[in-house]
Fold these 3 entries.
Entry 1:
Amino acid sequence: MFFLMNGILVLIYLLGIIFACVLFTNAIESLGSKLKLSNSATGGILAVIGTTLPETIVPIIAILSSFLLNKPAGLNIAQGAIIGSPFMLSVFAMSLLGICLVFLKRKTLNIDNNMVFRFYKYFLITYSIGILASFIHKFEFKLIVSLFLVISYVFFVKRTLAKAKDDFIQEETEELFFKKILKAKSETICLILFQILISLVFLVIFSHLFVHKIAFISEILNLNPTILSLIITPFATELPECINSIIWIKAKKDDLAVSNILGATVFQAVIPMSIGIIFTPWILPDFILLNSFVVVFYSLFVVLTLLITKKIRLLSLLSGLIFYFGYIVFILLHSL
């Protein structure tokens, strides 16, 4: 009965996240159209700003609890959550697109190859530098690395937005939900921003409740905190990006779906990682370094197949499931 009630609550919170994501994607598309931005900028910048809130908050709270409540485990949880997010996004979330293609009976993604290369380039460079920073022991050098990562992200955003104006193509978007509900005459910026704000409030609340419930169940089952921070927590907090991408793939807006995942991956490789480098010891154990190797290897595999075939094909996406679940099996065996 106990597990049944908790299972029902998890399902309710998940449905709440999905509802918030539907509201959010609807408003973000309208905002991107209003600002005359391309799909890559709408998905990779605008959508990311909102949906990365849950997964960015988790390591910050863990670090604060470590310092304020004298809980040393908080720093390890923060490091696991920071490393786990790019793993979840770059491997599992991309594989999820492949699963969507199977159900939609499609074999490739219709995307802008230049956009994908640009996003992967920034991600692989910044992520690799962030991981290599774990071998640096002087705080001054770590601070320089963190500043470099943040500056790189600012440059990435600036370049993406500049490209967005050139690549903008007016597409028909679904009518704003709040326009229907409030029976407004037009989709004003204020109305769009109001819907985004409401969707983000729901998103943060339901994501927090979902993560809290998952953590509670993990403690009851006596799971290793490393598994929670490295795998379970990112799985919960990255749900907004995953659900957004599913919604956009179903609507045949592949650029929005892919840019949302890759844009969030770039963000996670820079902002949370910069925080981790400065405010945690940032000494990564071997099993986390192996996680990073899996992320880089699979990302390079996708880029290589894209270079050769000029498409992101179903097989290269679904192969990510082997990398993802292969590592999960390893980490479970490692924790025994």
Entry 2:
Amino acid sequence: MIGLGTAAIGRPQYINLKPNGTNVPFQLKGFIEKGKSILTETYEGGVRYFDTAPGYGIAESILLEWISEYQPKDISVSTKWGYTYVANFNPHALVHEVKEHSLDKLNEQWEVSRQLLPYLRIYQIHSATLDSGVLENREVLERLHQLKNEYNIKIGLSTSGDNQNEIIEKALRVKVDQNDLFDSFQVTFNVFDQSLLKMSALLEQENKTLIVKEALANGRIFPNKRYGHYEDVYVVLNKLSKKYKTSIDGVALRFCLDVLHPFSVLSGASESAHLTSNLKALDFELSLEDLNELRGLAISPQFYWKERKNLPWV
């Protein structure tokens, strides 16, 4: 299914390419109302899964306000801990978010995130990495285990970087009280970075929940003169969009759905037109021949993440 990632409705700047961007001055009230409007439109479009995080600016509070006003009965929510948004809506901020995988940060952010109960189904470490040491921090792991049992939620993590498979492998070995701690993995997967395919069979075998983020590669799937080295990708995506009478992003999202069969592929839409275009992925299925052609577009994860680090916050 398609879910909604709320990073773009919770903070005005994000790592992305926005060819149709504007320089409209930021207004907090209007920003909040627009965010709630997108949530309503997403729900009315059939989406029932929403992913958020404290690191996404005020996304959690917008989601909570929308739930209070709209009163949806059948949604599920995931949130994360470990990043703090610090840009304060300043487009020129040098630092937008600060990472901290400590027990204190976990407890601090849980006190806010727990307000998402009873809709909260998955609680995740935000961008777990090997160098943060979070997968070896027994205090943190035991606290997550406690939350898992006390509130009957799944514990997960999101991954970033060219070594995400190594991170997943290590997380799969983490046990508390002789039981697996991690039930869910939010991973980067798209037509460019397909490295997760090496792990997908194992995750399915272990009955883990798989959530796909960055399915549109932060906008790099769309034709862009600055990325001429992706001309072959643009040709294939355009051809398939015409074949299936759909959008380019619809093809990219459908690729993730058909190849991985995940619990959810996240749309990051913050505009009505983008949401409508994303949801077209639900109207068709790609043929095996087309899936194989798209698989052939993969690039090395090292190149993908090196390029991603240079994308602007806009």
Entry 3:
Amino acid sequence: MESKVRFFAGSSSKELAGKIAASYGTSLGEVKLIRFSDGEIQLSFEESVRGQKVFLVQSTMPPAENLMELLLMIDAAKRASAREIVAVIPYFGYARQDRKDQPRVAIGAKLVADMLAVAGATRVITMDLHADQIQGFFDVPVDHLYASTVFMPYIQNLQLANVTIAAPDMGGSKRANAYAKYLKSEIVICYKQRTKANVVDHMTAIGEIEGKNIVLVDDLVDTGGTLCKAADMMIERGALSVRAICTHGVLSGKAQENIENSKLAELIVTDTIPQHTHSKKIKVVSIADLFAKVIYNIEHLESISSNFIV
């Protein structure tokens, strides 16, 4: 029997979803969004999805309306008798709230995982979660993709001598180590102390920096404070150049200004979050083809591990 697959997009990811669908060899279905005068939204599919496998593409960065849109799409697909409902979440918002790091706080990532499952999602596809253990928050299958598949070729094409991979904090050491092993390079780990969220008070580094071309690796860049402070410190300690690769370009507040005025040679991000940058230092690489390949493999019951580099 011929496979029935349909792609739909929420407001935050229409451009990326269009690229994914085109790479897969199809087009986006139509979703109608009605907004009431008080801001409440109502979603509906403008074509039948009965008995079909639907892939709903939506990143869930703020505002929270993006998450609400995805939940409404999932619920609409369930009530329209879709056969399977796959939530494709390139950027999984609230992933930084993955544990109780102080008394009386919510675990936002777990709450979002529960809401997606209750709404009716039968599978989740996402990329570079802030913490790998978030996969365990779900009671449905999770396909966790890695942007290293598109970042590795980018780094190799730079043909830099004396490349050293760096983790901007202790939590990123595992990711940086994976890159370093693949590239057969040395590794540097930064240690930072924060006075409050998004503000780095002090930073130092462990490893050889002088005479190296440093590549900082992280899952996301928010205000850019950590990356800019790390780049400035490394240049002062004799690094030849410092660039950063970050999967999710949150880039809130004065992030673009901070990056433009820093000693970073460039910042490379993916299009999991739509980018409207005015900084010449910020480059965007697309992960659409990777998602399309993985979705094809999932639909044809084939392994997806061949799509991963590290």
